[in-house]
Structure formats: structure tokens, C-alpha cells
Amino acid sequence: MTNPALPILHTIGGGSAHGLHHYMGWAQCPRKAVLDAEAAEAKVANSATNSATNVGSIAHAYLEHYYGPTHGESSHALQFSGHVAGDPDVSEAERLFRAYRKKFPRDELGLVLGVEVELPGELPAKERILNSIGIYPFTCKIDLVTEIDAKQAAHLKTTRDSDIEPGIYVIDHKTAGRRMKNEPEKWMHHKLQMKTIQLMWNACNPDRPCKGALVNLIYRRKEVGFETVVVPPVDSLAARQVQVFFSGIAELQRTLYDWPNFLACYSSYGTVCRYYETAQCRRL
Q: How far apart are CA 147 and CA 57, in angstroms?
């Protein structure tokens, strides 16, 4: 008897309608940001993806399944939006996941508090989010949230070569083709995402603040590589930088709402904005 197919967990191009990438998109083209938000709310997948993006998204689905409540089911029963078994992207993501599963037991990162945690959820946290982030509405989806005790923290020093203090951590899974120079430094101090997910968790869970964030890196090499970067708690300077950035975006929204920036239709890589190419966006 074959196992029934599990529901699609992680759709290609999915994301939060009013999250970090939406607001950063405003700095490039307000019209595109608005159309992207409408597509996200309507759950329309972004077809403008490449193989690396697809592999990363599918690998996320495997990890969501691994850490989530359906982990007892066979991962072969997973479905992926727009992809079928034997697809090269699915095969590569499965290769990464198998290597990950072999190296890291499911309980190794501590007690799982949530998988694909959507914030703010139903919590009445508007004022706290506005004070922490600098803009509202703001939403995010955290790949994994765990609570690590002292014994598990000591064990992680061996399994992940990381100095992790006991506490609650927000965790983001990343796949990459190669390790960049100064990889830990980049994630620890220069990635807005790693600041905002901590601030959002704390704003929505003021009685259970996180100790920091973990970046769970998986490298797509012939021999799959792994690295865990421990991101420290957000200090007052970084928190202020986040507020200034998003407050500026809020002002941009008020003055340039739905304005099409036709200087951003073509990327430096030669790709064309899908809305311009399909005439969903036209000159005023």
C-alpha cells in the first residue's frame, strides 16, 4: 500500500505578503512591490525563479517536513508546486536533505517550538511591531524556532562546532553553491533579515525573547557541506538601524505609492521584470 501524498509544504516563490523582501522591493520599484504583494496574498507563485532558487525552496520543504509534526511520514510522499519526482531540482534538494538528515538528528537543535512560524499571527502586537520594526503591517515566516537547554548547547559544540548558549533561537535554513569569504561575518552583522526575525519574534513573544538566531547553511558541493552561524541578539544600534530603514520605506510608500520605476525594468543580469514583460505594468 502506497502512502497518501502529503500536502504541498513549500511553494516555489512563496513568502510573506508584507515582509522584508516586499518592503525592500519598494526601494527598487513601488509598482512591482504592490503587484508582488497582491500575488502573494492570492498565493500566486512567482515563475521567475532559477534552479538554485528551486533547489533551496524544495530543500526548505524537506526540512519543514523533518522538523514538523508530519516527520514520521515518508519524505517520498511530499509534493512540490510545479515539480515532479525525478525533476533535477527535486533530486538535488533530496541529496542535500539526505546528507543533512544523516549528520543531524531531528532533536539535535533542541525542543521544536514551531516550524514555518508566521508572525504576527493572531496576536495583537501592532504597537510592539511598530516600535520594534518601524513600519506596520509587517509579517515574517521563520523557518524553525527551538529551545536549547544546557546539555544540548554543549552537544552542539561537537556536532556543529558552535558556541551556543541555552535559550530560544530563531533559525533560518540557507542553501548555497559555495562558501563566500567572511561568511559568518556577513550573517552575524550585515543581514537585515537576521535582525528583523529576532525583533519580530520578541515583539510577538515579549515574555519569551530569543537568545539570538542561527543560520543553518547547507552547501551544494559534491560532498555536501554544512555550517552553522550564531547570530547575536540585536543590540540597540542595530535595532535603531532597522527602525530608520523601515521608517524611510513607510515615507516612500506615502509619497510614491504604486509609482512605476521604469529605470528598474531590466536587471544587471539582463532579466526583465515579469510585470513589464507581460504588460501588467505600463507607462502612465
A: 25
Provide the residue type at 138 as one letter: F
Cα separation, 172 vs 182, whole angstroms: 18
What integer pLDDT is reported at residue 12 of this predicted model?
Answer: 41
Domain that holds residue 141: 20-277
Residue ranges of the chain with pLDDT lower than 70? 1-17, 43-49, 71-86, 122-123, 282-284
Give the model's pLDDT for residue 28.
Answer: 86
User: What is the pLDDT at residue 279?
Assistant: 77
The pLDDT value recorded for residue 4 is 42
Is residue 222 left, alpha or beta, with left meaning phi > 0 and alpha meaning psi from -120 to 50?
A: alpha
- Report the number of distinct structural domains present in the chain: 1
In angstroms, the CA 50 to CA 16 distance is: 20
Residue 5 lies in a domain: no
CATH number of the domain within which 33 lies:
3.90.320
CA distances in angstroms from 154 to 50, 97, 165, 166, 173, listed in the order given: 39, 24, 8, 9, 21
Tens of pLDDT, residue by residue over 112-168, are 999 999 998 766 788 899 999 999 989 999 999 999 999 999 999 989 988 999 999
- Fill in the amino acid letter for 129: I
Residue 126 forms part of a structural domain: yes
- Exposure of 195 in the CB half-sphere (CA atoms within 13 A): 22
| C-alpha span between 139 and 78 (Å, rounded) | 26
